[in-house]
Amino acid sequence: MSQIFEYLIAAALVLGGIFGLVGSFGLVKLNDPMSRLHAPTKATTLGVGGVLIASMIHAIASEGHLSWHELLITLFLFLTAPITANFIAKAHIHRHETPQSLPPAGEDGLWATHDVPASPEAAPTAPLARD
Amino acid sequence: MSLFLIAALPFIGAVFPALLIRAGRNAASLSTGAVTLLALVGLLVHAPAVLRGEVVTSRFDWLPDLGLNANFQLDGLGLLFATLILGIGLLIITYARFYLSREDPMGQFYSYLLMFQGAMVGIVLSDNILLLLIFWELTSLSSFLLIGYWKHLPEGRQGARMALTVTGAGGLSMIAGMLILGHIAGSYDLSVILQHKELIQASPLYAPALILILLGCFTKSAQFPFHFWLPHAMAAPTPVSAYLHSATMVKAGLFLMARMWPVLSGTDLWFYIVGSIGLITMVLGAVIALFKDDLKALLAFSTVSHLGLITMLLGFGTEAAAVAAVFHIINHATFKAALFMNAGIVDHETHTRDIKLLGGLRHLMPVTFTLAGIAALSMAGIPPFNGFLSKEMMLEAAAHTDWAGVAWLVPALAVFGALFSVAYSLRYIAHVFLGKKRHDYPSHPHDPGPGLWLPPAVLVTLVVLIGLFPNAIATPLVTAAATAVTGHEVHFHPALWHGLTPALYMSIVAVLGGLLLLALHRGALAVWNNLPRPEAKVIFDALVRGLTQASRGITDGLHNGSLTRYAVIFLIFTMGLGWYAFSTGAFGPETHETLPITAMPLLGWFCLVGSSLCVVAFHHNRLLSLVLIGVTGLMVSLSFSYLSAPDLALTQISVEVVTIILLLLALNFLPQETPRESSPARRIRDIAISVTAGLGMGGLIYAMMTRDFAMPSISEYHLANSYKGGGGTNVVNVILVDFRGFDTFGEITVLGIAAIIIFAITEATLGSRVRARLLNRKPWKPLAGDAHPLMMVVATRMMMPIAFMVAAYIFFRGHNLPGGGFIAGLIAAIAVIMQYMASGFGWAAERQKLPYHGIIGTGVLVAAVTGMGAWFNGLPFLTSAFGYVHLPFLEEFELATAALFDLGVFLAVWGAVLLALQSLSRYAWQPGIASEHPMDINPERDDAEIEQEGH
User: Fold this and answer.
1) Contacts (Cβ under 8 Å, ≥6 apart) of B661
2) CA-nearest residue of chain B to A98?
3) Residue A127 pLDDT > 50, yes or no?
4) For residues B623 and B723, what is the distance between their CA atoms, to the nearest angstrom?
5) B893 pairs with which residues across the strands?
6) What ranges in B767-851 are assigned the alpha helix state H?
7) In DSSP terms, which residues pair with B68 in a beta bridge?
8) Would you state the pLDDT for residue B634?
9) Which of A78, A125, B226, B528 is deepest in the core (most CB within 10 A)?
């Protein structure tokens, strides 16, 4: 393996490590849940991404072929991480926020999580009622 | 006709009435009659040969390893009984067509009747005692259905239960007796057993075998002290009583005693048990019968008495008595079936069976009266009817029997019984038909149509003909049957006039005494009513109640619903065994090096142990403990992966996902907190036990993994043969679908059954009052809006094809690389579950067109059919085959039947998981919960339009 690849891999790994560390540190350091939600995104995207890039370079350099697994992992991460964050945010809004404590939701009147259907019969299927 | 077919015809035919009842009652009864007639003709074709003394056999090795062969034989005894069963069956079928009312489900009746008939024919034709036992149990079951046919009557249900309990229990003891007998003789074939008289009677196991078999016979044939079930079984419709209790079911015990007569009889034990019980039953039945006012009860106890008579004759152990027994079996069947049908006619026409309300019917129902008169006189033993002939022979045999040195005892009691028999028979005529015509019958009686009186008339004709011309009609059959019973040639020449024998004097005494007793009936009844006597039903009910309570006590003591208790019993028992094995067994030296601990596994170990301990610490918060269990599961699958078990890791992770989702669903309906229930002392006890068990288990595993196994492991065989024999390099998968394919087949069947049971329980629960409670359920915390978020919905839609593709990929690579049907099934299930989670159960279920039951069934069927495919190659079930195929433009690839089998596994797992999930989801159903759109926010909506509507 040529020297340059080794440098590249090392750089990617260090980058990934730094972002992983920053993400974790942010998770501990930041005070309120909504801000905290931002920290792990660094770890999942750039942190894991750095490691994956290192792995791909390693595959090309030492085994001589392009490895697609890492791209798949990235795809799945990009798919799942936002949904997880979305759900955590929703849970937080549901349990700890009121419509008053949140910024206005614009034309819809209420944030979706607070828009509870009055009774099971008033189906959540109908387009959201306003006013 | 082959004997197989004769025995099978009624069973096959049982389908017809059940289906043809839609075409009307005539179609049902005609089809039933046709089946029976066909079997009867098939039987009678063999009659000439059998009467010549030949034995017809059909043999088929069914389960030779168990000694269970489907061997049938037809000898004289079998012919006699089979003719009675099918012949009287035919008459009963005709009679029942006109007897049952429009409200009675006639198709069911005929189906049950045919099943019963088949079971009876099976008993009398079996040449293998294990086969005989199967038919024996079938008669108990089918007679249960027949006796309880009028389900709406409590007496019917109770009578059916009692009959099943008594005859079923007897059947169980008979199984034991027959197994002992087969063990002594070294074969379960009757024809072999019958040749080993000396061997069997000399065996120390003779007494237990005899007693156990006799228990079966006595319960079936209603012998004292088991006679009580028969009168209670009279709650059945009359055709059933006439069939079961005159000619067939109760005669099964007699048949067996006659069948076993050559090997079991002749000893003192046989004489004193069978002879005495028969004698007691005969006398007791006759005495009780006289004092019964219910026509059918009278006939029932008279049946008990006559069965006792035949049992006694068989018990005497002499050839003459055996011949008399065989002859009386025919005679009793003819007059008793006729009398039962007659009682049915009286009941049908007058709407009562109470003798006290009847009398003088002779004027209104002359035909019925004639038939009843002849049959009852025959039952009383009055010449010139057939009952007289066999009763004379019985008295003759009794006169020569010496009971424990007391010469007069048996003859005296026999006369006593016969006296009562005359009295109740004549009472049937005198108190029902004779006397003055009354005006207070519950109905307006008149003779019925020929459909009801012709069947008993046929039997009554036989009663007369056998009585007048016994040699011409009965001799060939009786000779053949008695020859089969005794095992050597007998000569049978009955005659109405024997000369002035002791039997004749005894008979005269009985008739005169009986007339006198009938004249004094009122006084005798008063005496009888004042006698203290045990009520059999009360004793039986108390016994059953006691047994039920005892078994409930034991069951509740062991299974009180406390999982802790089960775990404690199980752990302590296992630890005890382990300790015993450890302290008595040898302990080899350590031979394996332990691997060095590195940072990663150590970290994993901490996560695993930490999450497990956290589950213990936080188990009161159920949601939290579920999350922690999830962590444990992931760590376990990571360890599998680290320890080079990718198959296990894949299985573990998919099982983990599905389980957690199912548990989450279930948690929806459970309290969120586990209450504290155990006292500190109990908690310390539980901790001590579980820590000991855990450490013991860990220690055991450590000891095993650091040593060579004491015996060679089977893994080497699997590793060596996986590719050679199974065509796959993934040993785990080859074990599942090939080496242990039959296990897997059983497992997917069980899995499917479990899922269907979950479905059934859900169905039953939602059909009950629980449904209202579920509908009125208040959420334990306020609900959140946006139950089906857009991002989640879109992502799961995207993931679904990917997940299915992964499932397909895992499935196809399974034979050679980690994967297989099981894991693929779970992944496919997760692909669907994701849709449920995102868009709600109702929305997703509407778009899921395949019924999950069908998927499970298809899976099991595919697996079964694949397994059966091996038969066409002449190989055992589930032998797999594989080959390599080369198609142009493709690489060479392998085709294995194991993959088809795996497809069955895949489908069964997929269907089972989803059916379980679907069932659990249905509990949460509320009106309007099913969304119309995949997500709560309809992206197609037009904001401007809504705005306008709002204002």
Assistant:
1) B833, B837, B917
2) B784
3) no
4) 46
5) B885
6) 770-775, 790-813, 821-839, 841-846
7) B63
8) 92
9) B226
Any chain A CB within 8 A of the CB of B555? no
Contacts of A110 in chain B (CB under 8 A): 785
The residue type at B869: G
Of residues B490 and B627, more confidence is placed in B627
B792 at A interface, C-beta within 8 A: yes
pLDDT at B816 over 60: yes
> Tens of pLDDT along B335-374?
888 998 888 888 888 888 888 888 778 878 888 888 888 9
Q: Which residues of A touch B943 (CB under 8 A)?
A: 107
Chain B: closest CA distance from residue A123 (Å): 5
For B760-773, the pLDDT digits (tens) are: 999 998 888 888 88
B412 at A interface, C-beta within 8 A: no
C-alpha of B550 from chain center: 23
ipTM score assigned to the predicted complex: 0.83
Query: Taking CB atoms and an 8 Å cutoff, what residues of chain A touch B929?
Result: 120
Indicate which of B627, B777, B780, B786 best probes the interface with A, i.e. most A CBs within 10 Å of its own CB: B786
- pLDDT score at B537: 81
Cα B304 from Cα A118, distance rounded (Å): 74
pLDDT at position A123 over 80: no
Predicted TM-score (pTM) of the model is 0.69
Q: Which positions ≥6 away from B174 have C-beta within 8 Å?
A: B133, B136, B212, B213, B215, B216, B217, B256
Question: Is B791 at the interface with chain A, CB within 8 A?
Answer: yes
Average pLDDT over chain B, rounded to an integer: 86
C-alpha B125/C-alpha B188 separation (Å) is: 15
The answer to whether the Cα torsion of B376, B379, B382, B383 is positive or negative is: positive
Q: What is the mean pLDDT of residues B775-803?
A: 85
Q: How far apart are CA B562 and CA B324, in angstroms?
A: 63
The secondary structure of residue A29, as a DSSP letter, is H
DSSP track, B286-299:
HHHHHT--BHHHHH
Within 13 Å, how many C-alpha atoms sit on residue B801's CB side?
2
Residues of B in contact with A86 (CB under 8 A): 789, 791-792
Using DSSP's 3-state secondary structure scheme, residue B896 falls into: strand
Query: pLDDT band at A10, cuts 50/70/90?
Result: very high
Whether residues A86 and B792 touch (CB distance < 8 A) is answered with: yes
> Considering only B390-404, B435-449, B907-921, which range has the smallest mean pLDDT?
B435-449
DSSP at B46:
T
Are the C-beta atoms of residues B670 and B622 closer than 8 Å to each other?
A: yes
Locate tokens 């996560």: which residue? B607
In angstroms, what separates the C-alpha of B167 from chain A's closest C-alpha? Answer: 57
Pairs of residues, one from chain A and one from chain B, whose beta carbons lie less than 8 Å apart: 67
Residue that has been written with the tokens 């005496």 in this structure: B527
Residue spans of beta strands (DSSP E) within B437-589: none
* Res B407 pLDDT > 80: no
- pLDDT at position A113 is 83
Put simply, whether B789 touches A (Cβ < 8 Å) is yes
B799 has a chain A CB within 8 A of its CB: yes
Angle between helices B475-486 and B319-350 (to 10 degrees): 120
Q: Tokens 């009691």: give the residue.
A: B413
The three-class DSSP label of residue B894 is strand
- For the segment B217-240, the average pLDDT, to the nearest whole number, is 87
**Domain layout of chain B by residue ranges:** 271-519, 708-778+786-939
- Least Cα separation, residue A4 to chain B (angstroms): 29
Residue of A nearest to B938 (CA): A127
Do the chains contact at B799 and A79, CB–CB below 8 Å?
yes
Given this model, what pLDDT does residue A120 score? 47
b/e burial code for range A23-38 (CB count within 10 A of at least 16 → b): beebeeeeeeeeebbe
SS3 assignment, position B206 = helix
